[in-house]
Design brief:
about 190 residues, alpha/beta, Rossmann fold, 6 helices, nucleoside diphosphate kinase activity, dTMP kinase activity
């Protein structure tokens, strides 16, 4: 289940740092579409941008997860937890990355019922209404005041425009010297 897409941007000026932006949301909330659009937009603004996806389906572990999600392989739900964890470790173990807190978490908010109306819903194992309702409840627990909530049921262009504004503001703030912060230190 794809639950996290990250867009990282860094300006062309070497004296400034980039911004780590995370898009969260239910399956079919628009994370993939909006991240791709954001990367194009940011590059059009003269910024370099990089897109990271979880699970990363290009690695061996990621391919195992993809096969599971698309029902090409059958594994117990408890068994698949390990490859999901390993897939995150493949990314986190890169020494230059570190455990930085995102500069922005944008939550694409859509009800499970509305997400189920979108094209392709049900193609993957966890794209089931009852499961997505549970995921939505967990997001309510995880959500904190630092997250920016975007109504993902709006037209795709409206979501795109809103994300462009908040991400560009975040990038600008980072370029002006916003301090880095770390995860889970409070």
């Amino acid at each position: 289940m794809e639950t996290n897409l990250s867009c990282s941007t860094e300006g062309n000026n070497m004296a400034t740092r980039g911004a780590l932006v995370v898009l969260e949301g239910l399956d079919r909330s628009g994370k993939s579409s909006q991240c791709s659009r954001l990367v194009s937009y940011l590059e059009g603004q003269g910024l370099s941008a990089e897109l990271w996806r979880f699970p990363d389906r290009t690695t061996d572990v990621g391919q195992m997860i993809f096969a599971y999600l698309t029902n090409a392989s059958q594994l117990d739900d408890h068994t698949i937890h390990l490859p999901f964890s390993a897939n995150h470790i493949e990314w986190y173990k890169a020494p230059e990355i570190g455990l930085l807190a995102p500069d922005l978490v944008a939550y694409l908010d859509i009800s499970p019922d509305k997400a189920a109306e979108r094209g392709g819903y049900g193609d993957e194992r966890y794209e089931k209404l009852e499961f997505q309702k549970k995921v939505a409840e967990h997001y309510k627990v995880l959500h904190d005041a630092s997250w920016t909530v975007v109504d993902a049921w709006q037209p795709i262009e409206d979501v795109e425009k809103q994300l462009q504004e908040i991400v560009l503001a975040c990038v600008t703030e980072c370029q002006k010297g916003k301090s880095l912060s770390s995860l889970w230190l409070t």
